[in-house]
Amino acid sequence: MKPRATVTTDPDRTADGAGAPAGGGDGPDASGTRTDRSRATGTRGSRTARKGPAKKKPAKSGPAGTGPQLGGITWRQRLYRDRTLVLMTVPAIALLLIFNYIPLLGNIVAFQDYDVYDLGITGSPFVGFDNFTRIFEDYRFWEVLINTLVIFVTQLVLFFPIPIAIALLLNTIMSARIRAWVQAVVYLPHFFSWVLVVTVFQQMFGGAGLVAQWLRDHGHEGFDLMTNPGFFKFLVSAQAVWKDAGWGVIVFLAALAAVNTDLYEAAAVDGAGRWRRMWHVTLPALRPVIALLLVLRVGSALNLDFEQILLQRDQVGSGASEILDTYIWWTGIKTGDFGYAAAAGVFKGLFSVAMVLGANKVAHMLGEQGVYSKK
């Protein structure tokens, strides 16, 4: 008779209880060497462990000529599905191309001795950077540039914080009816033209205005703020505040509406008063919006309101009121020197881009996103 074959198990598996005999005894099955079957099982397990996670399958492609699928459908199917939205954006894109991008091709005039009447763009001779050299050698140009920056800084300091303050004030009003009435009154001047705004200020603060007449009626000497060159930068800042502060409030009110009210309740439970809640909850919520609008505002440092300045230029003189836009209009366009005016416009655009990039870099250093996020 042939001896019976004994079945051996893996000691490791026995220790774990996975390969123990049914009786749970200490017989000969508890010792010995691995069988071929157990070695094969262990080999398969180690190979599986070495393989790692399964690779992701590549994105499916649609039928031939349709490109990759996006979210389960091809880009052509998505375009057909959203055709109504695409058609709605066509007029805006057309206006952007016609009035913003196609006119950029006209900057070639800055490098030409441009003759608008006889030669045109195609026939005017190229002069290289001669127009830019004329700009940089013109001392009057630098005086106008400095005056423009001074007016901008004055408006930035006096005008920019006021919409924030108005938004914070409106946010504390509990009555919806009173809040809506105040918003309507504050927003209304935005829809006035600069002609009407300057006229209102003339009737109020001019030499024959309401304030001057009231002072004379009470035995005091009147004044005329509209013709005071030293007060001009404060005058245009006051006009900008009255006209556009209410419109800027919209952005900050939208940001305040997104603040979680639980934060105010938690701060109140912790004993924070109204000012503490505003300082530690409201203002931090407005920081990203403030940083974004401040960067955009700095980028438009040379883009002051042309119509506002031009309407009051003769009253205070060009020394106090001349900005870059009015200077380009008087010395370039009005005299027919379009090459000089175009070169000044190119310089203005490059300067604004540099200001935006610099302000955005400062925003990144302060931990804010700015116009675009830091990579």
Q: Roughly how much helix do the residues carry, as a percent range?
A: 55-70%
The oligomeric state is single chain
Binned strand content: under 5%
Tell how many strands the DSSP assignment holds: 2
C-alpha-based Rg, rounded: 37 Å
Characterization of the model:
The chain is an all-alpha fold. Helices cover 63% and strands 1% of the residues. The protein has helices spanning 11-16, 36-51, 75-81, 83-101, 120-123, 130-136, 139-159, 161-171, 176-187, 194-205, 210-217, 232-257, 261-269, 274-299, 306-316, 318-321, 324-333, 338-365, and strands spanning 69-70, 73-74. Strands 1-2 form a two-stranded antiparallel ribbon. The longest helix has 28 residues, at 338-365. The model is unreliable at 1-52 and 60-67 (pLDDT under 50).
Q: What topology does this entry show?
A:
Blueprint: H1 11-16, H2 36-51, E1 69-70, E2 73-74, H3 75-81, H4 83-101, H5 120-123, H6 130-136, H7 139-159, H8 161-171, H9 176-187, H10 194-205, H11 210-217, H12 232-257, H13 261-269, H14 274-299, H15 306-316, H16 318-321, H17 324-333, H18 338-365
Antiparallel strand pairs: 1-2
Helix pairs in contact: 6-18, 7-12, 8-12, 9-12, 12-14, 13-14, 14-18, 17-18
Name the descriptors.
mainly alpha, two-stranded antiparallel ribbon, 63% helix, globular
Give me a quick take on this structure.
The chain is an all-alpha fold and 375 residues long. The chain is built from 18 helices and 2 strands. 63% of the residues lie in helices and 1% in strands.
